[in-house]
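Hey,
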Amino acid sequence: KNIRTARLLLFAYLICYNKNMVTPNPTEQNTSETPPSLTPEKLAELREQERQQKQTMAIIIAVVVVLVALLGVAIYFLLQPATPTDKIRDIFIIVVALETLVIGVALIVLVVQLASLINLLQNEVRPILAATTETVNSLRGTAEFLGENVVEPVIKLNGYLAGLKRMLELLGIKPK
């Protein structure tokens, strides 16, 4: 009965110890970990962002259409009678200018994507790593606690019992 009571007390102590290691105090809880609920203001903000994105895409498409139209007009006027080398040179200059424009837009998109990736790393990956580190530290504490308070006494008890058994065998009280 005493062993059963000791086991129950040890089990209760382990549960309380683990709960205190894993569950932070209410003052330590970070409110940013709870998922935000969508309020009407946030919904309106999301709709406004979507509208701005659509408007930006429409402007980009319009600029591309205007550039293609200008290229078509330039090619039409360059095909009018004149010296062929001047025409080729002018067309090449226009193509190089458009290519430079496309490369500039691609670089801008690349910078925006890089900023988005950095934002993702700072706001998503770092909290996950922090939570993982906290969990590992909690497990380390639990393992140390179990090693000191459960495993070590059991090993010592087994050693004492083996010594007692051998002593009883040597005294002839207990047969081999």
